[in-house]
Amino acid sequence: MSTAGEPVRPVAGEPGKVDLDKVADTADSTEQPPTKEWWDDPRMPWKGKPGKAELWCIGLIIATGIYGLFALFLRGVILGAFTAPTRDYVLAAVTGSNIAMVDIGAFMRVGQSQPFWWAAVIAASLTSIKFDWLWWWAGRLWGRGVIDMIAARSRWAGRTARYAEGIARKFGGPAVFLVWFIPFLPSSIVYAFVGDARMSLRKFLLIDFAAGLVYRGLWMYAGYQLGEPAKDLVDKLASYSKWITIAGLVVVFLGVYRQQRRMAAEQ
Predict the structure, then answer these.
(1) Contact indicator for 193, 147 with CB cutoff of 8 Å
(2) Among 103, 99, 96, which Cα is nearest to 121's?
(3) What are phi and psi of 35, to 5 degrees?
(4) CB burial readout 168-192, b (16+ within 10 A) else e
(5) Residue 12 has what pLDDT?
(6) CA-wise closest residue to 1 among 32, 21, 23
(7) Alpha helices (H) in the chain, listed in sequence order
(8) What is the reported pLDDT for 27?
(9) Which of 220, 259, 250 is nearest to 72 (CA)?
(10) Angle, helix 52-81 to helix 228-239, in steps of 10 degrees
């Protein structure tokens, strides 16, 4: 009898007796390493096999990224398909657009009444925060793990993540409000931090919505102050909406491609 193509030899001095140690060593050498599970990845936020809630959370976060690509395309379609001010209210409701806020404010400055401007601000604010609770939930589920996952995307992500985490540690709940007004900081870090710190979902959403109202209101006020030049700028952007959309999609896909190459090189 042989194992893995090698004949089993009798033990020296004992004819006919099989060397069992030799058989065991040969069998061990032919065993395949255990297959790594898909979830056993250090880039994931969890420790160990994820549960049902964790799979739902990460799945919804991935879905928001897909939705973001669709919204980028949809923004260009709305700009090109509707005339002002209808397009502004549609943009506010669908994408929470800052451009829409500026245009509505500019319309009011040039004397064209907009009696439902307040509805546009509320709609844009609600649209802007619709997925923020997912990062709060991720913080509840994984704590530091989700922060590390975001920071690992790139060197730039790592630097901005450290700043965002520092603000969250220093200010706590008010950081949810402040992060709206600090450019380039990943708000998801702050949301995950306060989720891990056990801030209630109700309190988180109230602060987030209040910040959204103020932020969108400031954009509308800026449009009101600029008046006709702002209106002309939005009209010009609308005329090039198709090309702006294509350029935006190219930038997004190039960013994803570079990130995938970097991750593959690190493996």
Answers:
(1) yes
(2) 96
(3) -70, 130
(4) beeeebebbbbbbeeeebbbbbbbb
(5) 52
(6) 23
(7) 20-30, 52-81, 86-94, 98-109, 117-128, 132-142, 144-151, 155-171, 174-178, 187-196, 201-226, 228-239, 241-266
(8) 47
(9) 250
(10) 100
Lowest mean pLDDT among 154-163, 170-179, 243-252: 243-252
Measured distance CA(138)–CA(141) in Å, rounded: 5
Mean pLDDT within 236-248: 71
CA-closest candidate to residue 169, choices 200, 192, 142: 192
Q: Which of 247, 261, 266, 219 is nearest to 105 (CA)?
A: 219
CA-based nearest residue to 73, from 94, 104, 93, 89: 94
Q: How far apart are CA 54 and CA 48, in angstroms?
A: 11
Tokens representing residue 171 in the block: 């200010």
For residue 252, the one-letter residue type is: V
Structure tokens at 104: 């509505």
Share of residues in the chain with pLDDT > 70 (%):
77
